[in-house]
Design goal:
Number of helices: 8
Number of domains: 2
CATH topology of the largest domain: serine acetyltransferase, domain 1
Oligomer: single chain
Helix content: 40-55%
CATH architecture of the largest domain: Orthogonal Bundle
C-alpha cells in the first residue's frame, strides 16, 4: 500500500499541480478565473423545474386546490429572486469581456442588477401567454400521435413537451439578448431529451416532434404553425460564409424556413438559409434538400438511385 505521506508522492503531486497551473496561462480561452462568477448551471436547471411546476401544475409536484395560489406565488417569487441574480451575472460577464475593470464601476454593476430584474419580470409576465401556446403544442402532440391515450400522458411523459417548453422559455430570454442563459437552457433540454432546438429559432403554434431523438433545429430556422416532424430531422446550415480573414460570418440566415402545415418524416435533412419548404407539403424520410419546395409538394427518394422525386399533393 502506498503511503500518501511519502515525500516522493508529495513531490509528484506538487509537480502535477504545477503542470496544470501552467496551462492556465497557455490556454486562457478555457479558463474563467475571475471575480465575476458565471451563471450557475444548477440554479438554471432548478429554475426550469420551477417553471414546469407553474406551467403544468400538479404534473411534476403535488398541489392541492386549497393552496395552489400560495404555491404558485412562492414559486414565482423564488424564480424572481434567483433568475434575476443569474441574469445579472450573465450581463456582468458580458461587460467583463469588454471591460476587465468592470468591478470598479459601480454604475456598471448597478446596471447589471437592474437588467436582471427587468428581464426576469418580462419573462414572468409572459407565463400566462406561454401556457396558452404550450396547450396548443400538447394538443398537437395528442392529435398527431394515435398511440397517445390522453393529453395527460403527453404532458407527463413526452420528451417533445419537455424540449418545446424549455425552448419557449429560452426563446423569450434569447430575444431579450440575455447572454449565456438561453443556450444553457436549450443544452439542458438537449441533454435530457436528445432534441436540440437553438433558442434563437422561430417556431409557430401547435408544433409537434414525434419520438424526437436526434432532431436538430438551427438558430435561424423558421417554423410555421401546425408543423409536425419526426426523429432524426435536421434543419441545418448548408455552408458557413466567411469573411476575408477566414472567420465565419455570423448573424445571417443560415437555416431553412418551414411554412405552415408541413410534415417532415424521420431522417430528413433540410439545409440552407434560402431554402423554403412550402406550406402543406410532405417531406418523406431520409430526404436531403438544399433547394426550395413549392407548396403542396410531396418529396420522396427513389429506391434505386436515391434521386429526389417531387410530386404535387392532390387536393
Amino acid at each position: 500500500m502506498i503511503n500518501k505521506d511519502d515525500i516522493h508522492i508529495k513531490q509528484k503531486i506538487t509537480n502535477i499541480v504545477n503542470d496544470i497551473f501552467a496551462t492556465y496561462k497557455e490556454n486562457r480561452e478555457i479558463n474563467h478565473i475571475s471575480k465575476n462568477p458565471l451563471p450557475s448551471k444548477d440554479n438554471i436547471i432548478d429554475i426550469l423545474k420551477d417553471f414546469f411546476d407553474i406551467i403544468y401544475p400538479g404534473f411534476f409536484s403535488n398541489i392541492h386546490i386549497n393552496n395552489i395560489e400560495y404555491y404558485i406565488g412562492n414559486k414565482v417569487s423564488k424564480i424572481y429572486d434567483i433568475l434575476s441574480s443569474e441574469i445579472a451575472k450573465s450581463y456582468r460577464y458580458e461587460m467583463f469581456l469588454k471591460n476587465p475593470n468592470v468591478d470598479s464601476c459601480e454604475k456598471c454593476l448597478a446596471l447589471c442588477i437592474n437588467n436582471g430584474i427587468e428581464a426576469t419580470l418580462f419573462l414572468l409576465e409572459r407565463i400566462a401567454e406561454l401556457r396558452r401556446k404550450l396547450a396548443l403544442d400538447v394538443a398537437a402532440a395528442f392529435s398527431g400521435d394515435p398511440s397517445a391515450n390522453s393529453t395527460t400522458e403527453v404532458t407527463f411523459s413526452y420528451p417533445t413537451i419537455q424540449a418545446i417548453t424549455i425552448y419557449r422559455i429560452a426563446n423569450i430570454l434569447y430575444n431579450q439578448r440575455i447572454p449565456l442563459i438561453p443556450r444553457m437552457m436549450s443544452e439542458y433540454a438537449h441533454a435530457i431529451t436528445g432534441i436540440d432546438i437553438h433558442p434563437g429559432a422561430k417556431i409557430g403554434k401547435s408544433f409537434f416532434i414525434d419520438h424526437g431523438t436526434g432532431v436538430v433545429i438551427g438558430e435561424t430556422a423558421s417554423i410555421g404553425n401546425n408543423v409536425r416532424m419526426y426523429q432524426g430531422v435536421t434543419l441545418g446550415a448548408f455552408k458557413f460564409p466567411k469573411d476575408e480573414h477566414g472567420n465565419v460570418i455570423r448573424n445571417q440566415k443560415r437555416h431553412p424556413t418551414i411554412e405552415d402545415n408541413v410534415i417532415i418524416y424521420a431522417g430528413s435533412t433540410i439545409l440552407g438559409g434560402f431554402t423554403v419548404i412550402g406550406h402543406d407539403s410532405i417531406i418523406g424520410g431520409n430526404v436531403w434538400i438544399t433547394k426550395s419546395v413549392e407548396p403542396y409538394s410531396k418529396v420522396t427518394v427513389a429506391d434505386l438511385d436515391n434521386s429526389v422525386i417531387i410530386k404535387t399533393i392532390e387536393s
